[in-house]
Amino acid sequence: FICLAGCCMHKELNTAKGGAVAMAKFWQENNLVGPLMLPNKGGVAAIAGGIEPASPSQGGGIKVAGIAGAIFAHRDDKKGEQDAINVAFEAKFGYPLAFPKTNSTHYQSYCDAGADLILHLTFYQNYIELMKDRKDSRTLNNMEKNLQMALQDIPTLHELYVLALFSAVISWPYMLIVHGEGQEDQNILDMGPIHAKFAAYMQSIIADPMIILTPGADFRVSSLDGQPWMRVNVMFAVWQLVHTLLHLPGLTIAFFNGALETWERFTEEFAPGGLISSMSPKQRKLAWMPPTNDVNEGALGARRVIKRSYPKSTELTLNARQRYK
Questions:
Q1: Where are the domains of the chain?
Q2: Which of 91, 107, 160, 192 has the most CB atoms around it within 10 Å of its CB?
Q3: What are the pLDDT digits (tens) for 118-166?
Q4: DSSP per residue over 191-239, as a string?
Q5: How confident is the model at residue 265 (pLDDT cuts 50, 70, 90)?
């Protein structure tokens, strides 16, 4: 028989995307003022000239996480703040900054960026002012202005808090199971109960978001497995402002609804009565598959795939193919 199971890291990635799409719809569906739109430089010029921008402007937590990554941790080490913000961050907090690399398409980076922005919100707000003061023109460019405005926009902050929550209660615990120490020999075919457990946990949050939003929520009854919160600093940051972020419960429900719908779609191969669930333990062991597709991704993974397709290629040819891309 042929048995297929997707990469668990892609399952988490698409689940977060599904939640973000549902979260973006929440504002209009409830007749609420949504996050500030953040047009690019061309869009600003078009709007100033009374012209409709070529592409619609975007805003919200995901957009802001992307902008922050481009400014604070650009993949090109000659662009953005790079060492300047790292030095300022270490001087303030006593340890180096490792801002999530949203600019490099790292897994979990957008939710982690949301968490980092809310944890050190005042620092980033003040640092943007420092960026402006360092310039001869004493002005920010369009991207920097967008970030400055977004970090003061209440609906945008709502979305950043929801991204941080999802990171703390779903993404990190799931990635620890999938990619944590000692999980190298885990068989994805045995992970059906784990995926069902995460689905049930998301359903419980949708039914009552206050199980994680109530200040001081007891992890023994509120966390996925009754263990201490993996990112307790994120939870405390959320609890500190939960009563001032009026739409946080509704937005949390919207995000987790979208996340759960996507999760169920991307884990349907584990559904009761399906091929995987009907396999015997011996069959699952014989058909062992890793929980991620890491061996085929990244620079080393790409080289492995090419070498498999072109086994007689020399290193010179393989390097030339890679450089041509």
A1: 8-270, 294-325
A2: 160
A3: 999 999 999 999 999 998 899 999 999 999 999 999 999 999 999 999 9
A4: -HHHHHHHHHHHHHHHH-THHHHSTT--HHHHSSSSSPPTTHHHHHHHH
A5: very high
